[in-house]
Write a structure and sequence with these properties.
Blueprint: E1 2-8, E2 15-19, H1 41-53, H2 55-82, E3 88-94, E4 97-102, H3 124-132, H4 138-142, H5 144-150, E5 162-167, E6 175-178, E7 190-197, E8 203-206, E9 219-220, H6 226-233, H7 250-273, H8 277-282, H9 285-313, H10 316-332, H11 338-342, H12 346-357
Parallel strand pairs: 4-6
Antiparallel strand pairs: 1-2, 3-4, 5-7, 7-8, 8-9
Helix pairs in contact: 1-2, 2-9, 7-9, 10-12
The structure holds zinc ion (2 copies).
């Protein structure tokens, strides 16, 4: 048993300052600390059978869920900052809304990614909102392998983490976006999140891009607050493609590669530290937090390396010329599905191969 602040023995009700050490950092459904108190060995022994398979296991599973969600959220922010695909020239708060203005889209003369406008955004909440703006699909899409990895052992074996969607009412929008062509974006978007079912049938929503709607809580049981609505409106299955006319098709190519880098960097970190992600999530809080920071730094480094490389080393001349040409070709045909979008034509593959042939030590994994 471990000692801490006082509570009531869950068997006899006497006040005590001892609790079960196995679930000392376990949490309840809302992610709050939930120690199980015992006045002494006798009461603990009497409750052992019920506790160890029930509340103790559940509290630790939720600990892994909430910590895993925190890790995924931080990784997602890091990923978005590196793979930022909006060219924002102005950001201001007016009447409780965040107004952003984009530069006119010009694929022929600009790269597909942009530096996040840190100089325009002072508030961390606004930064999170912009990092996740229009990126809800990237969470389930680009982070899917990591999501599965993080929840290993607690996810219901018959239930995959599923993509959940709901329609976001316009008046919920906190960000007002003026596109490069001067038009204000009025699209009624569907929002995507992940529903995670745990072994004991508890179900949670993991919303990595919730910050764009000023939602502070990115994970929690679906019976709380907005999640109640969310759950009601959840539509399972494939989402419609909503690719804006000014969308730069080069972005998903780079994102796909970044995802591979991210997954590889995580594997390398696990190997170097001789521990799996799930083990790291179960460790004592201080250890978990230190490891989380180190892991995010390692993964960020790997991703940044790649993006810097696409911006400089590759030679914007050869790669961008090829990609621009593909982009301009591809944009004239609207993709029908993700498969079409990611599946390049032979001609575009050829252009990439040529770009590749012009450089040494370049590996494309897109095809
Ligand atoms: Zn007792
Ligand atoms: Zn316990």
């Amino acid at each position: 048993m471990a000692s801490s602040t006082a509570g009531n023995c869950c068997v006899c009700g006497h006040q005590t300052s001892q609790w079960c050490s196995k679930c000392s950092e376990g949490v309840d459904k809302d992610g709050n600390a939930a120690p199980t108190f015992y006045c002494g060995r006798e009461c603990q022994a009497a409750d052992y059978k019920d506790h160890s398979k029930g509340p103790c296991k559940a509290a630790n599973a939720r600990k892994q869920l909430y910590r895993g969600a925190l890790l995924l959220q931080d990784l997602f922010y890091a990923y978005r900052e590196i793979a930022f695909d909006l060219d924002m020239i102005n950001v201001e708060v007016k009447n409780g809304r965040l107004h952003v203005r984009e530069r006119a889209f010009d694929a022929a003369h600009s790269g597909p990614l942009f530096r996040f406008p840190n100089h325009l955004v002072a508030c961390p909440k606004d930064k999170a909102a912009l990092l996740t703006f229009g990126a809800c699909g990237d969470g389930p899409g680009q982070m899917y392998e990591l999501i599965k990895k993080v929840f290993q052992g607690i996810r219901h074996p018959d239930t995959e983490a599923i993509e959940a969607q709901h329609r976001v009412k316009k008046d919920h929008w906190r960000i007002i976006r003026t596109q490069g062509n001067g038009e204000v974006d009025r699209v009624d978007y569907r929002h995507e999140a992940i529903r995670v079912s745990l072994i004991d049938s508890e179900s949670y929503i993991l919303d990595l891009a919730g910050a764009q709607y000023a939602r502070e809580w990115f994970t929690g049981p679906p019976n709380l607050g907005w999640r109640a609505n969310h759950n009601k409106e959840v539509l399972e299955g494939k989402h419609d493609d909503m690719i804006a006319t000014n969308y730069d098709f080069r972005v998903p190519q780079i994102q796909a590669e970044l995802t591979k880098r991210m997954n590889t960097a995580v594997q390398q970190w696990e190997k170097a530290n001789d521990k799996t992600l799930t083990l790291m999530l179960k460790e004592k809080r201080a250890s978990f937090e230190a490891n989380k920071d180190a892991l995010i730094a390692a993964v960020t480094h790997e991703m940044r390396d790649y993006v810097d490389w696409t911006k400089t080393e590759v030679g914007v001349d050869s790669l961008n010329a090829a990609m621009d040409q593909m982009g301009l070709e591809e944009r004239s045909k609207k993709p029908k599905s993700d498969a079409d979008w990611f599946g390049m034509s032979e001609q575009t593959k050829d252009l990439l191969r040529k770009a590749k042939a012009n450089r040494k030590d370049i590996s494309f994994h897109y095809f």
